[in-house]
Amino acid sequence: MVTMFDEPVERSCSHGLRPEVLSAQAERLRLRQVIGRRTWPTYDIAFAAALRALKDDDVTHVIFGDILFEEQPPLG
Questions:
Q1: Structurally, how many domains does the chain consist of?
Q2: Domain for residue 75, yes or no?
Q3: Between residues 4 and 65, which one has the greater pLDDT?
Q4: Residues 6+ apart with CB under 8 A from 13
Q5: Has residue 9 been placed in a domain?
């Protein structure tokens, strides 16, 4: 579970969630949590670094999406 946070790691970038909420989600889903810290100008660099960390651990597939909102319809 890759989550990008602001620099002080107080809120997630996309939904403004606190780290404790996302840690609980990762634990409940039994997912490894990878946290990136970024500013908006460094978002791409920080996200790429998080993906490289997964690749270094032999992770070959990643699924992207929100697990929080029921109102978001599935793609397709």
A1: 1
A2: no
A3: 4
A4: 4, 5, 6, 38, 43
A5: yes
